[in-house]
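Budget justification note: compute hours in this period were largely spent on complex prediction jobs such as the one shown. Inputs:
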Amino acid sequence: MNKRTALYEKHLASNAKVIDFGGWDMPLHYGSQLNEHHIVRKDAGVFDVSHMTVVDLNGERVIEFLQYLLANNVSKIVGKTGKALYTCMLNEKGGIIDDLIVYYQAEQEFRMVVNAATRDKDLAWIEQHASNFAVSVTERTDLAMLAIQGPQAIEKITPLLPDALRDTALNLKPFTACWDDNLFIARTGYTGEDGFEIMLSNEQAPAFWDALLNANIAPIGLGARDTLRLEAGMNLYGSDMGETDTPLESNLAWTIGWKPAERNFIGRDVLEAQKANGEHSVLVGLVLKGKGVLRGHQAVYVDEAGGKGEITSGTYSPTLGVSIAFARLPAGVYEEVKVEIRNKQIPAQVVKPPFVRHGKACIDI
Amino acid sequence: MSEILDNLKYVTSHEWIRVEKDNTVVVGITDHAQEALGDLVYVELPEVGAELSVGDECGVVESVKAASDIYSPLSGKVVAVNEELTETPELVNNSPYQDGWILKLELSNDAELADLLDASGYAKCLEDEA
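Corresponding output:
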C-alpha cells in the first residue's frame, strides 16, 4: 500500500489523476498538465509536496557535522536566521546521494528538506554520520508541505497569512524562511517563479489547502512540476544526477563550498582531483532544432567520431513551444549536437540553463 | 469513464476505425488512449502513399509525459493524413473521434475488417486492462 499525504482526499475531490511517485500516491494532474503549467507561469498554483522529507537536526556540534556532511559550506548561512542553502550530500566517491535545502534556524538547530524517493538511504546516511557528532536527527512526518508558486502567488496568499507573520513573510528575501508555532514559510520553489513553500501540521493542511483554492490558487500536479523545473534549469535527482555523478558533472559546481581549503567534507578529495584534471563529463541544456520531443535516455552524438552522451531528462516546453532537455555529454564545449529520436538524428542547440525564469525565455530560439 | 462510439470499430492497441463506403477507412486513437497519454504536444504522421500492413508502426503521438506509437489496424495504402495535427496536436485530446483523426487508408484486404472489435468488444478490452 502506497503512502498518502494529508491532502490525498483533497486531490481526489479536485479530480486528480493519481500515480505512484516513489511509493506515494500523488496527483499527476487535475485534468490538464499543460494548463497547469501555464497557470504557474502566468498566475498562481499550489503543489502538494508533502511527500518530501523534512529532517530537523539539533546539537552542540551540528555546524561542524553539516560542514562535514554537505558539499556546500553551511558557514554561509550560520547566524543568518531563516537563511537557506542549496547543496549536495556526497558519498566518498564524490557521487551525489541527494540534493537538498538546509535552513539555519538557531545556533544549534537546522532544518533539511530532502527528496521523497531517497528518504531511506538519506536518513541512514545522515544518522550514521550524525552519531559521531552527537547530533540528533528527527524526521518530521507530522508536517505537510505546500508550494505556492507563480507571479500572483504572494499577492493571492497574503490574506491567508496570520497577522503576526504576514509582514515578515512578505518581506522575505529569496531563499529565506520565517516561522511561528504553526507555519514555516520559505521563499523558495522549484518552478523558476516567485512564491512560497509552506510547512504546517498534517492536521492543518486540508483546511489551508481549501483556503488556497478559494483564493483562486489552482491545484497543480507533479506533471507540471516536472516541466516547470526543467524549464527553470533545475536538476531532478534520479534523472539528471545520481550516486555515480559528481556535482561538477551535474552543472552544480556553484554549489560546492571550496573555501576554506581545510574544510574536510565527504567526497572533497574526489572533487578536487576532478577539478584539477578538468576532464569530466558535463550536464548541459539542449533545445531541439527539428521536430519531435526530447526524452530521457535518448543518445546524443557530439562529433563525427561517434562520441556520445545521453539525455537525462527531456520534455516539450509549454512556455517556449519547443522541446528542451538536459544531457550529460563527454568533457568538452559544444554548440550543436545530434539527438537520436526513433532512428533519426535531429540537431539540437546546446545552451546554458535556465530556459525560462519569471515567465520569460532566457535563451534565443 | 472514456467515450466509446457504437458506430466505430476498434483494435486492442487503442486505435479506432471508421469504415467508409469507398473501400477506405479513417483511423484515429481512442478517447481512452488520449486520456491515458495526457495533453498531446506532437504528432508524427505517416507519408501519404505509404503501404502498410496490419500492426505496422505508422506514426507517433507524444504528450508532455510520453511517446506512443500508432499501429496500423489494417493493411492498405495511406491516402490522406490529418495535416492539422502538425500545428494543433491537441485536436486529438479535444476531439479524438472527429477533428483528431490521424490517417485514411485505402484497404488492400477488406477481409481483415472481420478481425476488428466492435464497441462492446473494445469496452471489454478496457475492462480487462483496468
